[in-house]
Design a protein that fits this description.
The chain contains no helices and 24 strands. The protein has 375 residues and is mainly beta.
């Protein structure tokens, strides 16, 4: 049966964020609503961690393609218990050690306090643990390239507050393929195979920007990893991807055990007058594609013959596509008319003429209780 809580639990960290290698100090405090502390109460705590993705000033540097978030607070990494002191306070001290992680982490500390009447009440708090004193972002100028053509990668380095900093970095480029195998339960699983194809160094300037160029010789997926070291010796990583088309070659994309395929647009946003290039990761050497542009209905449709499993579709961006449309494909295999696959990708469209600036302001700076506020 529900029982109204008689006290509240507050969890606080001693700092708003930490750097890998710091010491985390947290305080759990339990007090009855009439003011007395829950002295001697039993405290049980659990610390959870989840991956953190830094919001770069330019969101296109965000590593959207490899996000790995856990449900709830994340995965459990530590736990403990003890008794609150006479003030209802319990202290927790932990190392902010995320050296084995590739990314910064969000730590969530949940504490359950049980008073002498055996009534449990929980509280929690979250805090950010940075992987180092700066962040690295990397992206290709265009996400879809052609084998044999140079591809330029843009690099961004900022401190934990988002301000640009100059850094010396190294990079590696890996060609990623997938091999399918049947697991013991009968379902198919995919093993990722990486082959390093290029490496080098890049230095960002005082504006936190740099670039380097790589020419892919084969079609497929390419993963770019940048590495840097902060003044504490912490390893800082940044990740990016490039998808490469090569007509006439069969490319080993990764496919799930369903009828969906991936479509990859070559940019995050477009403007009217641009032409989007959309890579079709097809399992068929040759196929006919029904290509539709959709949003609240079908805006256009056409049939396209695909002569490889890495063909690209060209989609001219029209003004009526603002703020977004979806490009959809239904593939019918040439060699097996009963085989089909479906893919869909969003194309985000920006338009200055449709941009509206909205501001909200109250008619006064201060009010008294029960006074009317006008915005």
């Amino acid at each position: 049966e529900y029982r109204k809580p008689e006290y509240a639990v507050e969890v606080r960290f001693d700092r708003p964020d930490y750097i890998n290698g710091d010491t985390i100090r947290a305080t759990v405090n339990a007090r009855y609503f009439f003011g007395a502390p829950a002295a001697g109460a039993q405290v049980r705590w659990i610390l959870y961690a989840n991956d953190y993705y830094f919001p770069f000033p330019d969101e296109s540097f965000r590593d959207l393609f490899t996000e790995r978030l856990f449900y709830g607070y994340g995965r459990e990494i530590a736990r403990g218990e003890g008794l609150a002191d006479e003030t209802g306070t319990f202290q927790i001290e932990l190392p902010a050690d995320i050296s084995s992680e590739d990314r910064s982490q969000i730590f969530t500390l949940e504490a359950q306090v049980t008073d002498p009447a055996a009534q449990p009440v929980s509280g929690f708090a979250t805090v950010l643990v940075h992987r180092g004193t700066f962040y690295v972002g990397v992206r290709s100028e265009r996400y879809v390239a052609q084998a044999g053509d140079p591809a330029t990668f843009l690099v961004r380095t900022v401190d934990t507050q988002g301000e640009p900093v100059a850094r010396e970095l190294t990079y590696i480029v890996e060609h990623v393929t997938w091999q399918r195998r049947r697991a013991a339960d009968g379902f198919f699983e995919w093993d990722e195979v990486r082959e390093e194809v290029a490496s080098g160094s890049v230095t960002t300037d005082d504006t936190g920007q740099g670039r380097f160029t790589f020419t892919p010789e084969e079609g497929g997926s390419y993963r770019v990893t940048l590495r840097g070291t902060d003044e504490r010796g912490n390893r800082v990583l940044g990740f990016g991807w490039l998808w490469v088309s090569r007509p006439g070659a069969f490319i080993g994309w990764r496919f799930e055990d369903n009828d969906r395929i991936a479509l990859v647009a070559d940019a995050r946003t477009y403007r009217p007058g641009d032409t989007a290039r959309v890579l079709v990761q097809s399992p068929y050497e040759r196929a006919t594609a029904l290509v539709t542009i959709e949003r609240s209905g079908i805006l256009s449709h056409r049939l396209v013959e695909l002569d490889s499993n890495s063909a690209t579709l060209e989609v001219p961006i029209e003004g009526r596509y603002f703020p977004n449309v979806y490009v959809s494909t239904v593939l019918i295999a040439k060699d097996d008319p009963t085989g089909f696959k479906v893919g869909i990708a969003e194309l985000r469209v920006e338009s200055q003429e449709h941009r509206i600036q909205v501001t909200v302001k109250a008619d006064r700076e201060e009010y008294r209780p029960r006074e009317e506020v006008t915005y």
